[in-house]
Design a protein that fits this description.
The chain has helices at 2-17, 22-32, 48-62, 69-88, 137-145, 182-188, 213-222, 246-267; strands at 96-101, 104-114, 118-121, 125-128, 154-166, 172-177, 202-205, 208-211, 236-239. The protein is α+β, with helices and mostly antiparallel strands and 268 residues long. The longest helix has 22 residues, at 246-267.
């Protein structure tokens, strides 16, 4: 654990050192990280009230001439992400929910969101999750379970399945708690590889790039969680790699020469 924390610190330090100029970063952060909406970094999941306030701020930014066209375009795009999230909720088929109901062993387990965006629980049956935010999960499940159990004490956390690809030590699929910062998700994949270009990290959904550039750099430095970035199941975090200098390629090839010569000597 200490190693992960230390590596995360190194990653954040590297991002800060190679980040965009301070003035531009400040302008980008105000619109693209939600600081205008006073989002609370201590709250790991965005509430409906916070999202609605953030949406109003983004919509205001799209009409303001105080921001560049690039930032207004980014605000329009993120506003649309929030509208979809408010309408459809956060949960996707395949998401995992770790549920614990005190005194109820049958309801204390890890359950998967089924087709139709429902959670199928023993005794309780189907609990619809469409339109439910992650910040509303415990309250929503408590109300559903309370129809069958008197005053249940419910604890619930959610995990999403994402891909972490590119220049990381262990690229692949990961089931990640939605409240972890993006940097911690990268650590689960072993952290950036030697030739990773940290300032070019981006996030894809389907065929669209939903996060990248200065907006994502600012969000990473601020420590925003996957939930605060509005990530969901199926999203892909991509860490591009820098092209190695020619001298580095030659150096690597030189290391291969002795073994190859030795092998040829044995064969012939």
């Amino acid at each position: 654990m200490n190693g992960i924390v230390a590596t995360r610190g190194i990653l954040l330090a590297a991002l800060v050192l190679v980040a965009v100029p301070a003035a531009l970063l400040s302008q980008s952060t105000q619109v693209s990280s939600g600081r205008m909406a006073a989002w609370d970094p201590a709250r790991l999941h965005m509430t409906r009230e916070s999202l609605e306030e953030l949406l109003a701020r983004y919509e205001q930014a799209t009409r303001s001439t105080a921001y560049s066209e690039e930032l207004r375009a980014r605000a329009r795009y993120e506003a649309e992400l929030i509208r979809v999230r408010l309408e459809e909720g956060d949960f996707q088929v395949g998401d995992q929910i770790e549920l614990a109901v005190e005194g109820q062993q049958e309801l204390t387990n890890t359950f998967q969101v089924a087709p139709g965006r429902v959670l199928i629980l023993p005794v309780i049956g189907e609990v619809p999750l469409k339109g439910v935010l992650r910040s509303e999960l415990e309250e929503h499940l408590t109300k559903s379970i309370a129809r069958f159990i008197l005053e249940p004490k419910v604890h619930a956390t959610s995990k999403i399945r994402i891909s972490i690809l590119g220049q990381v030590a262990q690229p692949g699929f990961y089931v990640v708690p939605s409240e972890v910062p993006l940097t911690d998700a990268l650590m689960l994949a072993g952290g950036p590889a030697q030739h990773a270009e940290l300032t070019k990290i981006y996030v894809e959904r389907g065929g669209d790039r939903i996060w990248g550039g200065e907006a994502l750099q600012a969000a990473i430095i601020e420590g925003r969680t996957l939930d605060q970035l509005s990530l969901r199941a199926g999203d892909r975090i991509i860490v591009p790699g820098a092209q190695q200098p020619k001298w580095a390629v030659i150096r690597d090839l030189m290391f291969l020469v002795p073994p190859v010569v030795a092998l040829l000597t044995v064969i012939f």
